[in-house]
Design goal:
The complex is a heterodimer of chains A (67) and B (185). Chain A is built from four helices and no strands. Chain A is mainly α and 67 residues long. Chain A has a domain of 46 residues. The longest helix of chain A is centred in the middle third of the chain and has 14 residues. Chain B has one domain. The longest helix of chain B has 16 residues. The chains are: A mainly alpha (67), B alpha+beta (185). At the A-B interface, helix 1, helix 2 and helix 4 of A face helix 1, strand 2, strand 3, strand 4 and strand 6 of B.
């Protein structure tokens, strides 16, 4: 996975992400799995993501999205 | 009192600091990171913002531990933020493998139509049932709520991870009791 943009890293280190930054993080992790944001969200909710660390993390990150 | 704070940030940091203090005295010095997207938080091992696993040396070779939790804040009548677990995922993966050997998972609100046990264990383990070979990944083996302390205990006692302190057993017992008697009261 490519390094995250500095602003996103700093937001994570500060401990506070906006919804837009959360979506950016999901999109970047999805991209590393060869998926679009929408595909990753759908697969996460259906629990069809790869069972590796990125898939695990994405499943949890999607739980942070507003319902 | 449960895990509370005057702000979501305070409650989240209190939770993260506690788990980190347990981890550093038991199996790993890898630090958990917490961030909030109100009203929820995520706690995981991260480095430069990216998810990572903690490397554990076991009797069977190196295993990677993934720790992830999502909690949600409920605001009390007194205005305090109280954390409730929405999902957890603890996995152990052989170094170099893409699939965990064991996955303990909990999801408070499974997708529509899902009727499986919300607390379950899965892994690429083949079960022999009469003439059938059934992968554990196709089942949702019920576990009940698995405290993270029990995962760390399993790593030390059953997998042979060398504990980072001599009083690891007391650390795990105290943390478990704290969650049972204080954090979740």
């Amino acid at each position: 996975m490519a390094p995250l943009p500095l602003a996103l890293q700093e937001a994570i280190e500060r401990g506070e992400l906006t919804e837009d930054q959360l979506r950016e993080l999901i999109a970047l992790e999805a991209q590393a799995l060869g998926l679009s944001f929408e595909e990753a969200v759908r697969k996460a909710r259906d629990r069809h993501l790869p069972k590796n660390i990125l898939g695990a993390d994405l499943e949890l990150l999607v739980q942070l999205l507003p319902a | 009192m449960p895990i509370q704070g005057r702000s979501l940030r305070e409650a989240a940091q209190r939770f993260c600091d506690h788990v980190n203090s347990v981890l550093t005295r038991t199996v790993t010095e890898t630090r958990l990171v917490v961030f909030e997207v109100p009203p929820r938080i995520q706690v995981t091992f991260r480095q430069a913002g990216q998810p990572i696993e903690a490397r554990l040396q076991t009797h069977f070779g190196p295993l990677e531990l993934y720790f992830g939790q999502i909690c949600e804040s409920v605001i009390t009548p007194g205005g305090l933020h109280t954390l409730r677990t929405i999902a957890y995922k603890y996995t152990l993966t052989s170094e170099g493998s893409q699939e965990p050997v064991l996955r303990w998972e909990y999801l408070k609100s499974p997708p529509a139509g899902a009727e499986w046990c919300r607390h379950h264990l899965q892994g690429p383990i083949e079960l022999q049932i009469h003439g059938y070979t059934v992968p554990l990944n196709a089942l949702h083996l019920p576990t009940g709520y698995v405290p993270f302390e029990d995962i760390l205990r399993f790593c030390i006692v059953d997998l042979g991870v060398s504990p980072l302190s001599g009083d690891w057993d007391r650390v795990l017992r105290d943390s478990y009791e704290l969650f049972k008697s204080e954090f979740t009261r």
